[in-house]
Amino acid sequence: MAETEKDQFEDDDAEDDVPLEKRKKIFSKELRCMMYGFGDDQNPYTESVDLLEDLVINFITEMTKKAMEVGRLGRISVEDIIFLIRKDPKKYSRVKELLMMNEALRKARKAFDEIKYATTK
């Protein structure tokens, strides 16, 4: 088992060695929109977007690694993430807000589908 973990970490290191130009830009479009929404130029510098994307990816990676250590072996749950951010009031309240909004949307979709299904019969 130690050998497979070693291989896994070597793969992670290999991804870090890839130059910025060749990395897949996952959040580029969203980050540009967010930067504009927070007062930046409509077309922010590519370097700024790349820097923010690196920060976001590093944050997600670190949180995922920590969540893997906290929760059940090999699984991440919402509760694991909540546990990790419980001491940061801003993040905690935002996560709670998004989870409540997600639940409300799920209920609304279900009610809409039931109405739609009932009218088609």
TrEMBL record:
<dbReference type="InterPro" id="IPR009072">
    <property type="entry name" value="Histone-fold"/>
</dbReference>
<comment type="function">
    <text>The TFIID basal transcription factor complex plays a major role in the initiation of RNA polymerase II (Pol II)-dependent transcription. TFIID recognizes and binds promoters via its subunit TBP, a TATA-box-binding protein, and promotes assembly of the pre-initiation complex (PIC). The TFIID complex consists of TBP and TBP-associated factors (TAFs), including TAF1, TAF2, TAF3, TAF4, TAF5, TAF6, TAF7, TAF8, TAF9, TAF10, TAF11, TAF12 and TAF13. TAF13, together with TAF11 and TBP, play key roles during promoter binding by the TFIID and TFIIA transcription factor complexes.</text>
</comment>
<comment type="similarity">
    <text>Belongs to the TAF13 family.</text>
</comment>
<dbReference type="InterPro" id="IPR003195">
    <property type="entry name" value="TFIID_TAF13"/>
</dbReference>
<keyword id="KW-0804">Transcription</keyword>
<protein>
    <recommendedName>
        <fullName>Transcription initiation factor TFIID subunit 13</fullName>
    </recommendedName>
</protein>
<dbReference type="GO" id="GO:0006366">
    <property type="term" value="P:transcription by RNA polymerase II"/>
</dbReference>
<dbReference type="GO" id="GO:0005669">
    <property type="term" value="C:transcription factor TFIID complex"/>
</dbReference>
<keyword id="KW-0539">Nucleus</keyword>
<dbReference type="Pfam" id="PF02269">
    <property type="entry name" value="TFIID-18kDa"/>
</dbReference>
<keyword id="KW-0805">Transcription regulation</keyword>
<dbReference type="GO" id="GO:0046982">
    <property type="term" value="F:protein heterodimerization activity"/>
</dbReference>
<comment type="subunit">
    <text>Component of the TFIID basal transcription factor complex, composed of TATA-box-binding protein TBP, and a number of TBP-associated factors (TAFs), including TAF1, TAF2, TAF3, TAF4, TAF5, TAF6, TAF7, TAF8, TAF9, TAF10, TAF11, TAF12 and TAF13. Interacts with TBP, and more strongly with TAF10 and TAF11.</text>
</comment>
